[in-house]
Amino acid sequence: MKNKEPNWTKNELKIYILLLCANADSKIKKKELKLIKSSADEATFKPIYKEFKKDDEDTQFDKIEYVIGKHEYTHEELNDLKRDVFKIFNSDDKFVTNERYLEKVLDNILY
């Protein structure tokens, strides 16, 4: 991992994952950003968003995988996260190829 290993809470990780999902089509739309911000306070969102923007894709996946391994998730928590991921994917009423691919990658990381 290029950057320091993150020590995020589950909510911070969720924000990071949702940002990755919003960026699946290489552009985070205002509607997606608003949806992500609705699940976090500004003090939590801002540093995670700043870090996300400076990370390349490999680093993003490495960080997600690392932090997932640090937390124990219940089946219900994973289902809730997956629902949130689909809210982001479907916020523009399209489910494009990049989003389908990312869904599969995240499934492999999360489960």
Q: How would you describe this protein?
A:
With 111 residues, the protein is an all-alpha fold. 69% of the residues lie in helices and 0% in strands. The chain contains six helices and no strands. α1 packs antiparallel against α2, α1 runs antiparallel to α4 and α1 packs parallel to α5. The longest helix is centred in the C-terminal third of the chain and has 15 residues. The radius of gyration is 13 Å and the shape is globular. The mean pLDDT is 91.
Salient structural properties:
69% helix, 111 residues, mainly alpha
**Largest sheet descriptor:** none
- Helix fraction? 55-70%
Average pLDDT reading:
91
Q: How large is the radius of gyration?
A: 13 Å
Helical/strand content category: mainly alpha
Morphology call: globular
Provide a count of the helices. Answer: 6
Low-confidence region ranges: none
Q: How many angstroms does the end-to-end distance come to?
A: 21 Å
Secondary-structure element order, as H and E? HHHHHH
In terms of DSSP E residues, the strand content is under 5%
Total DSSP E strands: 0
Furnish the topology, listing elements before pairings.
Elements: H1 10-22, H2 30-37, H3 42-54, H4 57-70, H5 75-89, H6 97-110
Protein name: TerB family tellurite resistance protein
InterPro entries: TerB-like (IPR029024)
Organism: Aureibaculum flavum
